[in-house]
Amino acid sequence: MNDTSGNSGKGTRDGRGPSGLPEPGPAPSTAELRRRATSYFDREMGPAETDEFKARLLADDRALREFEMTRRAIEHLRTGRPSPDLTRSILDEVERRRRLLGVHRHARRRRIFNIASAAGAIAMAVLVFFGVDSVLPGPGGPPTAARGPGPMGPLVAVPGVADRDAPADGALALELHGPVDASRGLRWDISASPMLVGAPTEIARGSLPLESSSWAPLGTSGVWPTLFPNASISRPPASALLVEALKVDEPGKAASVPVKPAAPREDAKPGEDAKPDKQKSKDQPGPASQPKPPAPR
Amino acid sequence: MDRIEERRLIKRAAKGDHAAAEIFVRTYQHSVYNYILRMCGRPDVAEDVVQEAFVRALTGLDRFDPRFRFSTWLFVIARRVYLNLIQKHRPDSNSELVEARSAPERLPETPLARSEATESIRDSLQAALLGLPADQREVLILFHQQEWPIRVIAQHLGIPEGTVKSHLHRGRKRLRLLLEPYRTRIEGEAEVLD
Q1: Residues A116, A119, A124: CA angle, nearest 5 degrees
Q2: Which of A82, B1, B66, B67 could form a disulfide with A86 if both were Cys (CB 3.0 to 4.6 A apart)?
């Protein structure tokens, strides 16, 4: 009888008689033999107990038959053999899949790089659009000058700032001819004296054009209150007075560029102070006495 | 293969060393094949599952957790591949298993299984094995074929050790009952073999 439980008949001789066979005793019932068979198949039986159990089993046909059936079924579990070329087949497939994965990984890395590049470009564009000068320090130092009425960096002429325009409602605007390099620190000092004033109605909406060749309205909405939270904006005559375009550049090249007031609009309503009035404008109170604008949106 | 040798081979295989991969395949293919073969009863399916399991293991060695043995990991992968396969193709490729699950106390009655059952004693044994519920069959295979301890089987299957023992005892008993119709044949062969 083969030992399929993994128990060995060698070792201890406990429970054996002088002849080496198990000591005879009262014959166990079939139920008891079944219980022992369970213990045997569970690999819980010691060598001596195994020998004794097998000896008892021979005396009980029914228990022996059940035991043999179970043993053969368990033996059957171990009989399978794969085809001889399975090893080669597996290794070939592993190699093929590795090559495929290598190609896919390369393609995926390339795709990730492209996505990252696109995302970076978009991020840069957003930064530039919303005022990169407040994020990136320029060569003149950190971009703190534009925050509030405090001292600003040296003033330089902004290349291309030549004229102004009068958009709708007589708001003040600058016309920029040619691109302006934002990374060098474009600043609009609207809190300095003389300060920026605007139209009777809300100054034209718009944002700071960093690279533009068209007119650029300055306004109390859009990004301006965000860029200049400490700026005082009053309700001046329709025509603006003066604004200084400042650019932080290399030391020694600082200059400010005054901007002419907007021309009066022909379709201005009667009673409105649509005409440019320099004298009146100059009488405007300074920033210290200006009422604060509402909190920016 | 001891753990140190295994880790060394894993490092080599992860770098694409063909020889290291071959050692793993030659060492474990028989045991994984037998495990799956007795689970599904079809050599072609077993070979497909074994191949896929090895491919996944050897191409994913960078995800291997060194706290475990490679063989344990491989068996987990093979089991998952097999379960996915029978989920996907249950009505076609494993009809006898479905039949057996729906009526676990009787033998599979599909023409294929019946013809196989009359062919040889091994087919009879396999048919009886397929007549067991899958959880009992798997526990029997892991315990008696792979000779895993009950504790390891419990971890592998994610069930308590008591449940493993229960499956083991019930599975053996049910297997014996399922083999009863073939008893004469089996005993006759046993006499010839003995």
Answers
A1: 125
A2: A82
A42 interaction partners in chain B (CB closer than 8 Å) = 165, 168
Of the candidates B26, B46, B190, the beta carbon closest to that of A68 is on: B190
Residue identified by tokens 């550049």 is A249
CB A205 within 8 A of CB A168: no
What is the strand order of the sheet A186-189 is part of?
A186-189, A244-247, A257-258
Cβ atoms of B17 and B10 closer than 8 Å: no
Size of interface A-B (CB pairs under 8 A): 102
CB contact under 8 A, A83 and B38: no
Q: Is residue B162 within 8 angstroms of chain A, CB to CB? A: no
The verdict on A41 touching B (C-beta cutoff 8 Å) is yes
Cβ-in-10-Å burial (0-12, 13-18, 19+) of B138 comes to buried
Over residues A270-288, the pLDDT tens digits come to 444 333 333 333 333 333 3
Name the phi and psi angles at A175, rounded to 5. -110, 125
Q: Residues A18-41: pLDDT tens digits?
A: 444 455 566 778 888 888 898 899
Farthest-apart Cα atoms in chain A, separation: 135
C-alpha to C-alpha distance for A241 and A280, rounded to whole angstroms? 9
d(CA A213, CA A72): 93
Give the separation between CA B27 and CA A121, rounded to whole angstroms: 52
CB contact under 8 A, B47 and A86: yes
- Chain A neighbors of B14, CB-CB under 8 A: none
